[in-house]
Structure formats: C-alpha cells, structure tokens
Amino acid sequence: MNKDRNKLFVAALGGVNEIGKNMYILQCGDEIIVIDCGSKFPDESFLGIDLIIPDITYLLNNTEKVKALIITHGHEDHIGGIPYFLKQLNIPIYASRLTIGLIEIKLKEHGLLRTTQLNLIDSNSHISFGAIQASFFSTNHSIPDCLGIALHTPEGTVVHTGDFKFDMSPVNHQYPDLHRMADIGKNGVLLLLSESTNAERPGFTPSERLVGDHIAEAFSKAQQKVFISTFASNVHRVQQIVDAAIKSGRKLVLLGRSMVNVTSVAKELGYLNIPEDMLIDAGDTDRYAPENIAVLCTGSQGEPMAVLSRLASSNHRQIEIMPGDTVIIAATAIPGNERNVARIIDNLYLLGANVIYGSGSSTGMHVSGHGNQEELKLMLTLMKPQYFIPVHGEFRMLYQHRLLAESVGVAEENIFIVNNGETVEIQNNIARKTGKIPAGNMLVDGLGIGDIGNVVLRDRKQLSADGILVVVITLSKTEGHVLSGPDIISRGFVYVRDSEALMRDINQLVVSTIEKLLEEHGSQWNMMKQTLRDTLGRFLFAQTKRRPMILPIIIEV
Amino acid sequence: MNKDRNKLFVAALGGVNEIGKNMYILQCGDEIIVIDCGSKFPDESFLGIDLIIPDITYLLNNTEKVKALIITHGHEDHIGGIPYFLKQLNIPIYASRLTIGLIEIKLKEHGLLRTTQLNLIDSNSHISFGAIQASFFSTNHSIPDCLGIALHTPEGTVVHTGDFKFDMSPVNHQYPDLHRMADIGKNGVLLLLSESTNAERPGFTPSERLVGDHIAEAFSKAQQKVFISTFASNVHRVQQIVDAAIKSGRKLVLLGRSMVNVTSVAKELGYLNIPEDMLIDAGDTDRYAPENIAVLCTGSQGEPMAVLSRLASSNHRQIEIMPGDTVIIAATAIPGNERNVARIIDNLYLLGANVIYGSGSSTGMHVSGHGNQEELKLMLTLMKPQYFIPVHGEFRMLYQHRLLAESVGVAEENIFIVNNGETVEIQNNIARKTGKIPAGNMLVDGLGIGDIGNVVLRDRKQLSADGILVVVITLSKTEGHVLSGPDIISRGFVYVRDSEALMRDINQLVVSTIEKLLEEHGSQWNMMKQTLRDTLGRFLFAQTKRRPMILPIIIEV
User: Fold this and answer.
1) What residues make up the catalytic site (chains A, B) (predicted)?
2) Fewer C-beta neighbours within 10 Å, C or N terminus of chain A?
3) Do A510 and A489 touch, CB atoms closer than 8 A?
C-alpha cells in the first residue's frame, strides 16, 4: 500500500485524437484532480445528437478520491460539459474570474448555480489537495484569463498548458507569463501536457492586434452601417471592435444571446470597457445616420439560427442590411462549417453588401488563438520536460507535435501519444503506458444524456438515407387468412401518390408472400415478419436500388 | 415571325449560384444548342440522394429545336448528367477525343453506347447548326482536351469558355490557344460566358509542372513504397506520376475502378504514355523491393469506399501500407470533404507512414485547374465582350468576377449575374433579362430520377434527427373500445429496452387519449390520429426535448 500511496498516473478522458470535449485527470495515490470539462459538437455521423461530452465512469467509480475540477479557460470545449458533469458528480470547481463568470451563465440555465462550489483562482494562487499542490501561470489565447496549471506531486511536477499562444503585444496587457513558465521549467518538469491545435502550422501566429488594425481601418472606410460578427468569447477582439466603433464615431448594437450574455459578464468583471452611452438598441438605429452605426453579432460560423444568418436572409425583426453596408466576418470557418459560411457570404453579396472575410495577413479579420510550431517549441523549451504527452488535437497534430518535441531535445522514447482512456503511470521517475480506464463519447440528445447508443444511431442512419415502409396486415386467428390490408405506409422512401404502380406491386407481393406462408407454416409471426422483410427488401432494392427500413406489423384478431 | 427568327437568348439550366451540374443553352430562332450536361454531388441536406442533375423541362418542351449537346471537357460536373439526359432526349453529342472516351465509359455502364450519336470535334472543327456556326479553341485545365466554344449567330458571336487556366508551360504541350482566342476577340464578341471558380483568388495559378517537380522529388527521396492519390481524370498529373516512377526506378500499381478505367482510355487514345512493362498487379508487389514500388490510387477526397480510405484503415485485400512508406495526397479537399480527408491522414500517420499533403507552394502536391483573377482578366481582355455573364460559381464568385470584368473595361450595365433559368435575350445589339424558363435540381436516388421531392426529403430529415414512433391500436368496430394494443414501436427515437418507464407512460397516455375520444366522438379515425399525434408529440417533447415522427395506426375489426 505504501508503494501505491504516491502512485502517479495521468489520462485523457477527452481531447486526444479529437478536437473538443477536453478532460484530463491526474491521480496521485488517493487524490484525483480533473482538468477541464468540455463538450464537442457532433459531426454529421451523429444524427440528431446535440452535444458530445466525456464519459466519466472512472470518476463515478472513484467519487471519494475526486478532489477538484480545475478549468483552464472559458471556451465550450473546456467548460461545455460542466452542467452534465455536476449532475453526476458535484465537486468544487476552480477557475479564474472570467471563466467563472462564463460558467455561471451555464449553471443558471441548468438551475445549478446554488448547489455548485465555485472557487476563484488567479495565476498567483497556490492550492493544496492532499499531497498535490497546484500553482498556475498566465497564458494568452482567444479569450482572456487563461491559466496553465502546474501540479506538484511527490513524484514531480506535471504541467498542463491549457490553450495558448505567445502574443507579446496582447490587447489589454494580458501577457503570457514567460518568467513564471521559466521558473517552473527551471525547477524541473517531470511531465508536460501541451496543446497541439496548430502543430501542423509553421512559424508564429500573428498578434491579435493585427486584427484590431484591420477592423479599425474597415470601420473608418465604411460609408454606411458596419456589421461585424465574431466569437462572443473573444473579449479582446470585442474590445478592439468597440474601440474601432468609438474611433469612427459609431454607436454600437449588440445582437445575439451569447454576445449579449458574454459581453455583459465581461463588462461587469472589468474585462471589457464599453462607454455606457455608445450602446443602443437595434430598434433605435433609425435615429442615427448609417455611418454612425456598428452592429456586433453572433453567427460567424454560419449557424442557421444565429443573427448573422438571419440578417443575411433579411429575416431579422429589427434591423436590415442595405446595399452599400459593410459586413465583416471576423473568424474563419471551423472544419464542417465551410458551406454554411459560404452560403451566408453569397446572401450578403446578394443584398448588395461589401463583404470582408478571410484571414490573409494584409487585410485579414482573424488570427488564430493557438500557437504555431515556433510557439509550441518555445513552450517545450521553457518547460524542459522529462516526459511529454501532446494533447488537444487529432492524431496528425499530436504526431507533428511529437516531431517538434524531438526537435527541441525531448527524448523520443519519453514522448507518449495516447488515446482517450490510456493511462501513463510514472513511478521512480520512469513513465510507461499501463492500461486503460473507461473513456468515450456520451451523447446528449434533448434531455437524454447517454441514452442514445449505436442501435438508435444506426436506425437514424438508415431512416435518413432511404426512409421507412410500414406494412400492416390483419389476420384472422381462427380462419388463418388475411382479414384486411396490407396497408402500406411510406415515409421518406417514395411519395406514395407518385408511385402508384410500385405500391400496387408491393401490395401484391405482400399478399402472395403471406398467403404462401400461412399455407405452409400457419401464422408464425416471427418467421412471417422476417420473410416479409427479406422478400420485400430484395424486391425494393431491385426496383429502386434503395434500402428503406421495412417494418411489418401483423395483427391477429 | 420574322422578328423572332433571329431572336437570340441564353440561359443556364445549371452551374450558376452553385458549383456543379453545368448546363447552358443558347437559342437562336428555332435552334437550341446545349453546352455541357453535368451532375453535382448532394450536400448533407439532400439525405440519401446520390446525384443531382439539371431539370431539362424546357428542352423536353422544345425537343424539335434542340440540335446538339456540345461538351467542353470530361469532368463529372460537365458530363455526369449525360446518361440521364439521353434517356429523356436523344440528341447528337459533340466533344473532343478524350472527352468522348470518358463519356463512352458512362454510356457503357448505362447500356446507351449503341443508341448514342457521338461526334468527334477538335479545336479546328467548324460545324453548322442551321443559322448557328460553332467553332472552338483549346484551353488548359486539370484534364486534357478542353475546348472553349464560339457560337456565331446572326446577332453576333457568343463565347463559352468552359473551365480554364492559362498554363504557359503545360504538360504534354496542351497549350492554351491564345492566338485563336485573340482572333475571336478581334472579330467581335457579343457575349462572353466565362467560368468563375477562382474569381476570389488573386494572382495567377501555378503551372501543373510545379506539382510534377514536387512529386518527382518525393518519389526519389522515399526509401520504401510510395502511394499517391489524385483525381483519375487529371491525366497530366498521372503522366507526371508515371514519369516520377520511371525516374525513381519504380513499378507502378493502379488501384481503383475510375483510375483503371480512365488511364486505360487515356492510354489508348494517346494522352498517356506508360511503358507496358512498368505496370504490375497489386498482388505482385511482394516480388519487388519496397523502394521499387509506386501505387497510384483513387480516394483523394476521402471517399469512404475508395482505395485510399481502405488502405488507410488496412482494409485492402492485396496491398498494405507499412511503417516508413510514403503516402502523397495530390489534391486538396473539396468543401464538404475536409473531415473525411483529415480522418484518412490521421489513419495513415497511425500506420507509421510519411504523409505528404497540402498545397503550399514550396512542397505542394496540388495546383488548381482553374485560372485565378489575373487569368480571368486575361480571358476578358482577349475576348473584349460587349456583354458578359459570369458562370460556374456560387454567387460570391460570380460577384467577384463581375468586379474583375469592370476592372478591365466591360461596362457595368452590360454585365448580367443570372440565376439558373433566367433568360438573357439579345436583339439589335441590346441585351436584357427577359424572364424565366424551368430550371432546378432533379434528384437521382438509386434508380429513381426526379421521384424524390420535398415531402420525402422533409420526412427523411425528421427521421434522421429523432426517429419514428409507431403506435398500433386495434378497435372493435361494433363495441367501440380498444381490442388490443397499443403496441409501441420505436426506431431511431429511443432504445426501448433502456426506456421502460417512458414506454409505460406512452402506453397509458395513448390508452387514455383513445378512450376519451371514443367516448366523446366515437371512432373518427382522422381526428383520432391527429389528436394522438398532437398529444403524444407534446408529451414526448416535454419528456425528452425530441420530436420523433409519430405514426398512429388504428385498425378496426
């Protein structure tokens, strides 16, 4: 037991070999620290699913050991799973001021605000969880108040970077704390977990200030109204938009629930400086000249229900884009959203707007919040870790990050690319992969968490491609023949009124199949249903090359 | 009538405000010429649909006038609709040698080869269709044997560029015919239709030779097997791959149906030069050292059933990717395919391969086949058209192309951005939009063409998101009460075995609803079904926040 007291291992419950639903655990003896609790948006293969969150079975099996959930920053892929997590396991949360503000918005929506223990930390905090001491360092990213975490254990120090870039000329003086990082590295880092999002991109990510300059220029050039869409949580960019509006003499309209919520929290907490008299309601824009109006809104990812999409299709109740207005999309499309964003740009041009989009360095309205290769190397060099696990990224990014680590001197055999759930244990300074704990996708669909599994998804897939054909037949129990039917109902297969001949053929085939079966075997339901499904399935595929789900309903009376 | 004899109009039946299914018509008096007959792959909103082709109602209503289908080149978005077109309207096709070779592959598959009249043309052909004379000019693009078309009518000359770039150092000497274009322009162009695919991109597209250099370098550096995936129809790139294999002493394996088909046609017709003894079967690779093997395969767009995808998941019967092998993806992902391609790259890295992808200019393995802004301006300048219609592109591309045309001197009021089906008429040298002819998406699903409409798609959408709940009840006709049931069947909604409580609640709700209805109104089926749908729908949404399709089946006996 003494040996196990200091046993140290780490694992990802989400966030490796994927983008999103970040969650990492560090266990040392009887203490477990959880880092981040993110969600992820499902891709098109998860039909009808709203959200994907990490499977926390391992934590539920070890509830008494779980001491804290530490959050690195307030993006959805780091906080989106919190309400679902808390409903299963209510543990204290530690986060910085803005991050807590954003978590509180979520907790309110889920009615969890009163029962949750939120602890404010900053980069100077030191917290003890039994044998583990946590300290922190400031990083910068596309949201303020980001923290990297150093967990000092009896085996040594484990560092988790969170998301970061090295923006040396940041907005609002949110500098990356190079000196603190250097100190941590100097004192020895046993294991580093560092984010890999941009590990495929050479060079150094440009400063957020570049975007500010471009926005200011576009605002001052625009002759009429300016609409600009960006991520609500990119508070530094929002500040630069506010500044550009002030400089060009424009009042500002905020549109979209998350834009209003987040700016309100950021303002209240002092992260955003907006003069009171510059904010106006959308309904009041007519009282100003077009060149005195700027509109900041949600929807930069082409989300069909968000404000930008509604504006682009002239579907907003209060405000309209007029020919000659300027529309800026200050974001790039996340993979999977390209087509929706392109459709919006088309619609904006159709309305006669000047549309500014894209991330070229000369006029670009977006820079990444993640460090490129040189910045990842800088972090690795500062931390000088003995062992390294690249995190936050799909495999090719983790792979490139491994090459970067090797290039700055981390020994190849000391780098571990892991899957979600794989444990890396360190004992007596020696690290190795030791096994697996449960990890995977927990699907959220409406109010259901985890109740949608492979069977339901497979059914949805078949239904989505070829629809369903329901065949209803009533048999006489006593006389052993067809009493009524078959009634054929098609949904998503063919439109019945346009397919009369096919419907007649289906009808005949069902009747002849059933009569033959009744004659040969009597009414054995299961065999009857299976035979109907097979016979009808073959016939329909031959006739249409489609494979609808076939649902035979046989009623005996 | 005399006035109408020379009446000239043009329209797009597909290809504007979209990428794909290109089809343009020019009508002059009683003659209609059709240019291209493409197909388009459905986006995710067209659930279960295989292909989209143009609606040709207008041509079917004017069959006697349709004189010819002229094809500019052999890409799917220009020839993919031909078999479906011919089944409705069998008219002579005119195309260049390779284009005909590729069309013949399609006609064979559809059993149409014998009944189709294929006419070989080249850039020197002159053909008369009544009052219309057609002449042609060579362009270059990512497939050999591309033609631009000049249709000389009594009203003036209308030019359609097809797809093009200006590659001045093309592979296999397929030069763009600048002198012919200059001649056509000098003699006066009334109306130009020019492609807009890259109208958003500044500068000049690099030469295909650049890719050849990079491929040759990668082939010679690779220590083991090389796998390379590209579009089968990019015969020039295939030639460069063949040359790189020869230079690096490698035998070549061709994998994938379209790769085998297209290279075989291109070889036979003299567009591709592959020494006989260098081609080997996939099964024979073991007889050679790994550094003497190159594999050219399909699947560069991440298509799940294509060779590259199967290789990446170690699912190919004959050949395997080993650690240290090199895999080159010589293509960029078409919008919508990014995630599938990324997944393949991940899997290739997991197998230990060196993966080379992306289109950066230093090591890039792909260049576009479409001209960038400077090339579009070059075409506009050569043609000096009086009127201009940008084609081939989504609205933002057409819009940018309009700006380019203005920048080289085309009068703003002489530029028409049209929708599919909008007619632009020119009479006495004056062009104007005059109306609309039918145009739209014809959906191909399995063997069905055009039988899937909005109702079926809407059903598929609902089924895909939340599944279906079938409720079966048997009523006694004479006694007016429930005889048996309700039986509740869920597909794609919830997994019944995990949802016993919900199923019990549904059961009770159905019974109480039906009994109440029977008491109050007797057995009025339609009202009963509607009430069940409403009541159950509200209940399920409150319980689960999901909206499955509800299908009540009521049987009276």
Assistant:
1) 195 (proton donor), 370 (proton acceptor)
2) N
3) no
Task: Write out pLDDT tens, residues A281-295.
Answer: 999 999 999 999 999
Nearest-neighbour CA in chain A from B330: distance (Å): 17
Looking at the fold, whether B330 and B417 belong to one and the same domain comes out as no
Q: What is the pTM of this model?
A: 0.89
Q: Which residue of A has its CA nearest to B474?
A: A555
- Of the residues A236, A316, A370, A401, only one is catalytic, namely A370
Annotated binding site of A for Ca(2+): 48, 50, 445
Same domain, B161 and B214: no
Q: Which CATH number goes with the domain that contains B300?
A: 3.40.50.10710
> Residue B526's pLDDT band (boundaries 50, 70, 90)?
confident
The count of structural domains within chain A is 3
Q: Which domain holds residue B144?
A: 2-203+368-449
ipTM computed for the complex: 0.84
What strands lie across the sheet with B146-153, from one edge to the other?
Answer: B126-129, B132-139, B146-153, B156-160, B191-195, B387-391
Nearest-by-CA chain A residue for B486: A555
Annotated binding residue at B73? yes
pLDDT at B1 over 60: no
> Is there a single domain that holds both residue B114 and residue B197?
yes
Q: Annotated catalytic residue: which of B160, B214, B370, B401?
A: B370
Share of chain B above pLDDT 70, in %: 97
List pLDDT tens digits, range B96-142. Answer: 999 999 999 999 999 999 999 999 999 999 999 999 999 999 999 99
DSSP B163-186: S-B--SS-GGG----HHHHHHHHH
Residue B175: pLDDT above 50?
yes
Answer yes or no: do A17 and B448 touch at CB < 8 A. no
Kindly state whether residue B349 falls inside one of the protein's structural domains: yes
Same domain, B86 and B131: yes
The Cα–Cα gap between B335 and A224 comes to 33
B370 is catalytic: yes
Question: Which residue among A18, A76, A155, A195 is the active-site one?
Answer: A195
Q: Do A472 and B472 touch (CB under 8 A)?
A: yes
- Integer Cα distance of A13 and A122 in angstroms: 25
The answer to whether the Cβ–Cβ distance between A467 and B463 falls below 8 Å is yes
From residue A409, alpha-carbon distances to A162, A375, A384, A406, A414 in Å are 22, 15, 8, 5, 10
Together in a domain, B407 and B497: no
Establish if B8 belongs to a structural domain: yes
Domain termination site, one of A356, A378, A408: A356
